[in-house]
Amino acid sequence: xxxxxxxxxxxxxxxxxxxxxxxxxxxxxxxxxxxxxxxxxxxxxxxxxxxxxxxxxxxxxxxxxxxxxxxxxxxxxxxxxxxxxxxxxxxxxxxxxxxxxxxxx
DNA sequence: ACTTTGACTATAA
DNA sequence: GTTATAGCCAAAG
Length: 105
Description:
With 105 residues, the chain is mainly α. The chain has helices at residues 2-7, 17-24, 30-40, 68-77, 90-93, 97-100, and strands spanning 15-16, 52-53, 82-83, 86-87.
């Protein structure tokens, strides 16, 4: 479910672990989302985890992409500006699955 | 089976 | 604004 939701994140948008967690039913399990992401990269499942940041718009998981620079580079490639490990205009780029997505699609 | 840790979040000081 | 603490659930040691 986590992967399915994260994969639905539009290009150039970001969201928080909590939003995803709540959307799939694990409202208090934002950590599990991150954990699932960590497991996801070893699967044959291309999850755009770089679009998933913490509630502060901070690139907390940047270190898990192999190199700390990789996540920011991907975000910038999406048209997102990153300053000091943080997504610029985060509140504008924030994409809420519960607000724009349904349980299917 | 118990303890520790972890890509988080919310509240309090 | 930051730092500390608690809640949360699952996996690894």
